[in-house]
Protein 1
Amino acid sequence: MITTYGFSIATPNKDLRQSAIDTVFRWLNEVHPHEKRTNSTPVSIRHSPNDPIFRVDVLEQDPQQAAARGTTATLIVSKNELYFDLRRTLRPTKAALLPRRTIDHPEPRLSQLVAEIVGLFKVRDANELIKSEINLAKDQLDGQRLAAFAEAPSRRLPLVIETTVGKPRAITTAATAHQLAGIAHVAHITSHVAEEAFNDFYGARKISSSWIAVMWPRGAEPENFFQQDDDELVKQLIAASVGSLVTLILAPPKKSKSEPGRDFEELRRINQELVEENEGLLENANLTAMLGAQKTEERDLAISQLTTFLLMDDDKSYLDKVSDAVAYAQKNLSNLVFHERAIESANSSQLMNGRRVYSNLVELNNLAARLQRGDFAPNVFNIYCNQQLSNFAASISDEAVNRFAQDYAIEWKGENVIAKPHIRCGDARIHFYHDTKTNEIIVAYIGRHLRDKSTN
């Protein structure tokens, strides 16, 4: 089962439970009215006044492939909050390999349900209301306020900022904000003074009409999108939302005593529960086998890496040179592709912090393995790098791109590409390129600091 869309939201106002349930039922009756439900579209509902968990699960067959599309809305009352979770999943129905569709844009009927729940809960993120509409920054004060919000330590959702000054039309629209309800804040800078105020807050050009900026929370590196539509932007933000979803552990509903006249109905219900439980056990068994093989692979890799580092302690000169470390990495780190320029630059660098370079290459190799295995979406690879790799930078400066692009470029499969993501290792730099078509990670350069705005 693959989660292709998901979002969650929580409010301390537990009195909204019934209103939220009514909203889900209205959506369900509009999408799948009782009179049109068939065996090919099963609807499962868990609902009881005394049950802290409310859940609706709808399964729709996909006629184009051996799979079903599942939509699950869950409402949980805990000690401190009311928690709402919505997920869209792809579930294989036959023993067949299917194309992996990592992300789905929510269809209008699903976006409307999300917008209604977000509007009902009225939750604030770093004192800003989470909503399905665009925030407008029109003047200097708005620009300063938006910059302060972007830097708020308590902000948990991404902030999408587009400068619309001088554009015939905005790339992000009301439809974009509607699709990203509960997943990201969307803001438009509508004047030069608001843009200047925002950039002055940082003392640098963070936003411009040339790109759309995504300000990630918790100190993650901002990202700039230059495309002419918002498709890739929306996909990346949905992928981040899916990646942040918690595993829901739901206790079974409490069973009440059967009335004498309802014994047959109770037996039928228990039988259905057993059937569903057996199906769940089978799915868990398959998942356990897959995870077991994955853990075995990770354990063997960890043992190999540990052996290498023990050898380093025994022999103080082991992999001391960067050139030796890269040659060793090329033989042993099978999830990385070492471009010939990476080998040449390492050999000519004469740097002597090879162990540190090798250690970072090991971590990059592990992330590349997870990427190729499908543990996370390709468009959030840099986010995982930022979490796992110390001194990682997702890109290079604008001046480096404009003035020294040839320093960062490599020839890859008949094209010139720029290796922007890099890892700082003391005097050394590791630059790599992510081929999003094949999910290969190509190590492009290992050597001294390349030219940028701080060098001539």
Protein 2
Amino acid sequence: MLRALGGDTITLLFPALTVPNDPSAQLGLVDPGVEQVNFSPVVVRTLPTTGDGPRRRLQFLIPGTAVAAELAERNAPNAEAMFESALGISYDGDLFHIVNVATEYFAGTAYLFLVEAVE
């Protein structure tokens, strides 16, 4: 269904977990970088914004299977913790800040994550 509605790809950015074993890195003088994790298929919906609010507000519909696979990879206790640890979402060349995560359930299983982000 998500492929039929758009099937876009987004990239979540996470802080790199490994720091080089170098004295300058231990002092914080070296940027450890980020890890990029792609999610696909994703539906992207534009949400209305107010005049004094963010420039763009988007909602990303991410399949539960993709999130579940990444939870095991990141050793996160749940999806909300994983999204909170993300630095942002890269989509269409722009970086968005995650402001809200909601989960849709069917028969007790999370099948869809609605991630709201602003530019």
Protein 3
Amino acid sequence: MLPKLLKFVVRTRFSRPFLILIAILFTYSVVISAIIPPQGLSFIFGYYVVAIVALFLAMTLATGGIMVLKSDRDYLFTLPLSTRDLSISIFFAQFIAFGTTVLLMFGYLAQGFTSAFLIADMVALALIFTALGVIAPSIQTRTRLALSLGLALWTLLAFAKIPFTPGSAFNGDVYSGTATLVLLAAVTLAAAFRGLSRIELDMMRSMVRSTSTEIKSPNSYVGKSPKGAIYSMNLSSISLAGRMNMAGTSRYVSRRVKTRWVVAVTSGAAAAYFVAALLKTITKGFGLPEVFASIGLVFFAFFLSQSAITNERTWLSLASLPAATYFRHLIASRLLSLLTILAPFAVADVALLALGHVEALGALVVVTVVIPGTYVIEVLFSAYVAPIQVKGDDMTMPAQFSLKQLATALPVGGSFILVSAATISPTFAVVGGAALCAVGALFVMSQRFWNGVVTRLTESGFV
């Protein structure tokens, strides 16, 4: 029965083209890892891998979810199936979505490290990502965010040569780092399968928790015009969730937080970045803190861009203003909110430049030009290519994983190209970012484009 159940669960969650592409990418990763010369990769990629591992561990725990569809609750869970088989099947689907991210992103580094334990490290990390996605919904939101931050900081301690962290295996402490990953994988796997064995109960608890939570400090838009209400809502609070793509993986949630709290967090992060930049070690002309901060902010902006449309209720929004007018002001207000959140990093970069740290110029260009330009493109792209509406169920991922969803991450590639260019030639990055802003502005002002978006939203089931 297990093989049939595995096939059913996978086919109801992933489109065939998506699975074929994942197989091709995995094969490519393995081949590249066999032919890339190992010389000189360990040091540079060691820093890269630790930073990316910290980011993805935190984001997986903060926004993870279980791959359960509404149809599962109506049909699959009512069948007399083995709890063990059902848990294994759902976990296997989670692994395809979350675990393959590790293999696709880090597999090509195999020849860059001489560690004999690299395979164990990759497998353990893949299992940890998968398990965290399962565990996340059963944890209270504030606790989950705190644990996510703690997990990221624990991983980044590898930079200080702390031996027992999830990132230590990639930064020189092979034995202790691998042991830490294996132990963490064992703990998270045990918690994940315990959660999957009682998945129906956890889903009911989550539903009760989300529907019975007290509404605090409700926003009032009395006396405001439709446009004023748009700006008031998006400048006072921000959605921290939405679509999160990792090798095609998509997670949709609906969480709004007061902008002032987000600014407080980014201010603390910018202060830490400023100190790290002052104490940094320059490697081959590149400022590592500036590069890592730029990469992290690009990912952060991408996550925010994917939530721009997902929480919209078109029956209400488009009844207040014409579609093109409404969406133009929606994007403008969310862009202003993003710039407010990123402002502490811009201030830190200006201060670093004043102190003679010229590498901060590239980071400043990324924050002020590249990220705003790519943010608008990402919102437009996701709205037109694969829009998904959040409808209130924070336990499930209400969509098949398809090539369209994978395509929503394409604009991020342009961001990384410009981030790399900014470290070498800030002028090139300014030109590239300005070009993105110009292209985004042309689409934003196009009546025909927004008519097409409304059609896509309707076809995708927006209400």
